[in-house]
Amino acid sequence: MGVSEGDVAAFVAARGRLFGIAYRILGSAGEAEDVVQDTWLRWQRADRGAVEDPTAFLATTATRLAINVAQSARVRRERYVGPWLPEPVETAADPALGAERAEAVDLALLVLLERLSPTERAAYVLREAFDYPYRQIAEVLGVGEANARQLVSRSRKHVREGRRARVEPGEHRRLVEAFVSAATTGDLAELERLLAVDVVAWADGGGAVHAAKRPVLGRDRVARFVAWVAAKRWLDAERRFVEANGRTALLVLRDGEPKFLVSLETTVDGIAQVLLVLNPDKLHHVTHVASQERALSGPRWDRTTGVRREEGFQR
């Protein structure tokens, strides 16, 4: 059965949500794109005339596919060289993430979600990022409503235990700028003042670039580590502030190409985590612009498949 214009339109309308769900479950934009592509193929093969709610059908399909990918990805990430961090995405003007609650895309939160089971992660994302009712979460996950409530409750408890009170966006930006300034000048005393007592720094190189293979713990050691990274990796490089995963972050570039991203978890106790994403394979979805003016090119759709082929910022 051929795909009608209405079928394509239904998929296009849901695509942002599908990507948003898959990305939050997987922490990988590349894997999320694959899930969206597979969802489109399932939609083509489905008996679409019998589908009462295309958006619900597509979201259910994408969620279940993402859970399957997450289950297999866990094995791969156990073999990953050094710490594994989620793949950051530039969110300043990107509607593809399509969340009603932006906090559920925060990089530090995605790190926490990675410690949950894939099903718990999906339950949390559907409830906290997209405000799904428990009945619908149960239908998506193929469990009873009481079980769905338990999954959300367990995941919320884990997140609460692993998260501190966050600062507002304006204060977050101020702390990021102060952190970058102190690191650039090698001011260890100022760096220590900005850091929480039990701060942790993670460096994700994936074996592709040299990076610390274990977390760096404590205010003094993290301050010295950050100052060393700044001196070695960014003093002679181009530096830009970008909005990555809904929060201000530092992007370091050479010859116009992103080399690594520094994301901070900023709390009322100071900077609690320093996340350095150095693996070049994880920087494809972080884009910089030369000025405050941003223009998002529209998604280009393959006329046959209806799947987006290219999307990005234009200077």
UniProtKB/TrEMBL annotation:
Annotated RNA polymerase sigma-70 region domain ranges read 15-70
Q: How does it assemble?
A: Interacts transiently with the RNA polymerase catalytic core formed by RpoA, RpoB, RpoC and RpoZ (2 alpha, 1 beta, 1 beta' and 1 omega subunit) to form the RNA polymerase holoenzyme that can initiate transcription.
Extract the Pfam families matched here: Sigma70_r2, Sigma70_r4_2
Which residue ranges does the record assign to the RNA polymerase sigma factor 70 region 4 type domain? Answer: 108-158
InterPro entries, alphabetized: ECF_Sigma-70_Domain, NTF2-like_dom_sf, RNA_pol_sigma-70_dom, RNA_pol_sigma-70_ECF, RNA_pol_sigma70_r2, RNA_pol_sigma70_r4_t2, RNA_pol_sigma_r2, RNA_pol_sigma_r3/r4-like
Family annotation (Gene3D superfamilies): 1.10.1740.10, 3.10.450.50, Winged helix-like DNA-binding domain superfamily/Winged helix DNA-binding domain (1.10.10.10)
| Source organism | Amycolatopsis dongchuanensis
Q: Which family does it belong to?
A: Belongs to the sigma-70 factor family. ECF subfamily.
Q: Which UniProt keywords apply?
A: Sigma factor, Transcription, Transcription regulation
What is the protein name for this chain? RNA polymerase sigma-70 factor
